[in-house]
Amino acid sequence: MFFNLRFDAIAREQLQELENNPSFKRILKDVRKALGWMQIDLRHPSLNTHEFHDFRGRQGEKVFESYAQHKTPGAYRILWHYGPEKGLITILLIIPHP
Asked: Quick check: 46 and 64 in contact, CB under 8 A?
């Protein structure tokens, strides 16, 4: 199933920060690649998608974590949930792994 992506205000700001800073060029490439996979195959092995138990969406939605990077200090992660409409994923955060 193909998913459209909707960015929460914070995630939009985080993506713009990556786009506007040349030192984040590699991270931006990895994040964009992960977002592309999320649209077409949430089960793609490189995403390692799983439920993120420490956080809920604004309406109590289950939140999931997908990997944008692997085996990298501070590897970037994408937090998201399904909806609010069918076929839509809301991107909540694009953050480095602590």
From this structure: no
User: Nearest to residue 52, comparing CAs of 14, 1, 17, 92?
Assistant: 92
Q: What is the CATH number of the domain that holds 26?
A: 3.30.2310.20
The per-residue pLDDT for range 16-58, each reduced to its tens digit, is 999 999 999 999 999 999 999 999 999 999 999 999 998 899 8
Q: b/e per residue, 37-46, with b = 16+ CB within 10 A? A: bbeeebeeee
Please calculate the CA angle 28-94-26 and round it to the nearest 5 degrees: 15
Question: Domains in the chain: how many in total?
Answer: 1
Contact 84, 90 (CB under 8 A): yes
Domain containing 32 equals 4-96
Q: Count CB-CB contacts under 10 A for residue 17.
A: 12
Closest CA to 64 of 44, 86, 48, 76: 48
